[in-house]
Amino acid sequence: MNITVLAGGIGAARFLAGLASVVPSESITAVCNVGDDLTWHGLHVSPDIDSVIYTLAGLEGEHGWGVRGDTTATLDGLRALGIDEWFGIGDRDLATHLLRTDRLRAGATLSEATAAVATARGLRVRVLPVTDDPHPTVVRTAEGDLAFQEYFVHRRAAVPVQGFVFPGATAARPAPGVVEAIRDADVLVIAPSNPFVSIGPLLEVAGVRDALVASRARRLAVSPIIGGAAVKGPAAEMMQALGHEVSALGVARLYTGLIDTFILDTVDAALLPDVRALGLEAVAFDTMMTGDEGRARVARAVIAAAS
Ligand code: GDP
């Protein structure tokens, strides 16, 4: 059974780690968002891909990003030089960005550089960037258009959002294997990720949405909204700002036409009839991925819901 996961960062990474603990890693493909990518002192950083790789390797930091127990000598050194550095990269994390950037400068594609990083971390899950082309997410705000990390990290996601723009979308082609992984999967899961800035950018790449619509897979999505709030991050605020109902039902509406089954948390079980009224199958269980056991439990329940 081949399982493809449409993935953002931390929520997706935790789900993938659970999945890899209950099915063979070789059967899993993660199609990852690159809208958050940035250039940091000349280095190509792919935050969502790195969250997925570090988490699958069991190395993720306490807050879900970076490397656990990492040191900050480089950042401290930059600040000592008078550089006002707002994006935090740890010293061990830096090694990943050096490897990726070296590969890219030597002519590798982002897919090839990602595979090099994943292999070096011992992964057998296939980790694919959705595209090898530049495909940044731009956040439209009252203060103007902001690059994603400018909005998310520098402004701490505190600027009201008006919408999103994907200037690379028209030229971006799916990376090798992406369309096939979506079209030919047995099970396809939209991870519990931000619908606007993690899953949205994936669907903007030409051919990806069509592959999802045409896929022969059993297609499921796990709600990132539980009890009307995001587990973490700005997804709820974004739904509110863009005029969507801030609930699992609001997320289900966003995915209608793309999936067969919507999974919401037990605390939202009262919404099951409303989700079914959208023409979707709906299942409720505890979707909090706390600890290794929580991740594995959610992965098992999603597989059960697919069969
Ligand atoms: P980011 O780019 O690192 O913020 O990561 P994602 O887009 O993958 O994930 C963020 C979303 O995942 C947020 O909307 C969270 O509410 C959701 N999320 C995180 N952990 C969990 C969890 O344990 N269960 C569920 N259902 N959603 C989660």
Furnish the topology, listing elements before pairings.
Layout: E1 3-7, H1 10-22, E2 28-32, E3 38-40, E4 43-45, H2 47-56, H3 73-80, H4 91-105, H5 110-120, E5 126-129, E6 138-141, E7 144-147, H6 148-154, E8 161-165, H7 178-183, E9 187-190, H8 195-204, H9 208-214, E10 218-222, E11 225-226, E12 229-230, H10 235-241, H11 248-255, E13 261-265, H12 272-276, E14 281-285, H13 291-306
Parallel strand pairs: 1-2, 1-9, 2-5, 9-10, 10-13, 13-14
Antiparallel strand pairs: 3-4, 6-7, 6-8, 11-12
Task: Describe the overall structure.
The structure is a single chain. With 307 residues, this protein is an alpha/beta fold. It has helices spanning 10-22, 47-56, 73-80, 91-105, 110-120, 148-154, 178-183, 195-204, 208-214, 235-241, 248-255, 272-276, 291-306; strands at 3-7, 28-32, 38-40, 43-45, 126-129, 138-141, 144-147, 161-165, 187-190, 218-222, 225-226, 229-230, 261-265, 281-285. The strands form four sheets. Strands 5-2-1-9-10-13-14 form a seven-stranded parallel sheet, sandwiched between helices. Strands 7-6-8 form a three-stranded antiparallel sheet. The model has no long low-confidence stretch (mean pLDDT 97). Bound molecules: guanosine-5'-diphosphate (GDP). The site of guanosine-5'-diphosphate has 25 residues, from helix 1 and helix 2. Guanosine-5'-diphosphate (GDP) binds at residues 8-12, 14, 48, 51, 191-194, 198, 222-224, 226, 230-233, 235, 287-289.
